[in-house]
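hiii so um. not sure if this is the right channel but i have a protein structure encoded as tokens and i wanna go backwards to a sequence. like what aa goes where. can anyone help
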């Protein structure tokens, strides 16, 4: 899985390892900020309305579970 740009200002692009994945974005305090189903090999997550800071992106699919630290500027 590849996530860019990181740090992100508006749109975070996620290259997905599976055709269908569940994306969940969490604040560092553990609060879920958003949750979406992604279909296809690439997905765009709009982070424009979020406050600056560090977030955790969790991606789950068929037998995979990955987390990535994302910095919002």
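sure thing!! here u go:
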């Amino acid at each position: 899985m590849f996530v860019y740009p990181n740090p992100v200002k508006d749109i975070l692009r996620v290259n997905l390892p599976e055709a269908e994945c569940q994306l969940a974005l969490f604040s560092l305090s553990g609060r879920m900020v958003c949750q979406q189903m992604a279909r296809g090999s690439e997905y765009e997550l709009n982070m424009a309305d979020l406050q600056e800071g560090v977030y955790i992106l969790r991606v789950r699919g068929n037998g995979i579970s990955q987390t990535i630290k994302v910095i919002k500027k």
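oh and The two ends are 22 Å apart (CA to CA).
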